[in-house]
């Protein structure tokens, strides 16, 4: 078999599904290091479509930006994904699909997001919103909500991936399978 220049072996990581079937709730994944959190993001980035909305929750330093960096990698974003805290939103145009990365920490409401007048529409891009829980759900009927939690005494993070509508549940499963987790 001939491998094209873009072929890469699947990344080896320590991502582990702690609980796959939680009834109505999505899988819970354990992420020992920041590299693992980025790897989860990369796996998700590879299954994203234009119009997708991902809402990230979790406390300060939980790894929301680290996860978004991985999503950027998976989309082929080559410019650095950094926290958009002071600019509210950053648009990365060089990947497979435009990535709109929002930090809603200081955002009073979704109207303020509209006022930013971004270069791309929600339909044609992937939107990832840190601190978006309880607000950004109104942007779309279908979205993936990821809640990150951190341990008190180690770097370990856990991510709960909750699919809402669309084909999110199937795509989350596909992304996790792709990483052999
Ligand atoms: N398992 C892990 N997953 C993610 N980040 C980790 C992990 N272990 C250590 N870290 C470190 O924790 C920090 C996470 O910071 P990050 O900016 O991603 O968090 P955040 O949730 O976006 O914070 P904020 O609420 O300020 O936006 C980074 O410095 C990262 O290197
Ligand atoms: Mg952040």
Question: In words, what does this structure look like?
Answer:
There is one protein chain. Helices cover 23% and strands 24% of the residues. The protein is globular and about 40 Å long. It contains 4 helices and 8 strands, in the order E-E-H-E-H-E-E-H-E-E-E-H. It has 181 residues and is an alpha/beta fold. It has a single domain (16-178), classed as P-loop containing nucleotide triphosphate hydrolases (Rossmann fold, 3-Layer(aba) Sandwich), CATH 3.40.50. Helix 1 crosses helix 2 and helix 1 crosses helix 4. The structure holds adenosine-5'-triphosphate (ATP) and magnesium ion.
How would you concisely characterize the structure shown here?
The chain is of the alpha/beta class and 181 residues long. The protein has helices at 34-45, 64-75, 110-115, 168-178; strands at 16-19, 28-31, 53-57, 89-92, 99-103, 126-130, 143-150, 157-164. The chain starts with 15 loop residues before the first strand and ends with a helix.
